[in-house]
Amino acid sequence: MKFKIDKKEVLRYLQVSKKINDEKINVLIDKTITEVKDLINLRYLYQKFPIEFTDQGVKVEGTTLILKGKSIRKHLKDSEKIYIMAATLGAQVDRKISYYEKISVTKSMILDACATAAIEGACDYIEAQIKKEVLKAGNEDISFRYSPGYGDLGIDIQKEILRILNAPRKIGLTASKYNILLPTKSVTAIIGVIAKTIEVEQRHCKNCLLDQECELRRKGIYCGAKN
Question: Against a cut of 0.70, is the pTM above it?
Answer without folding.
Answer: yes
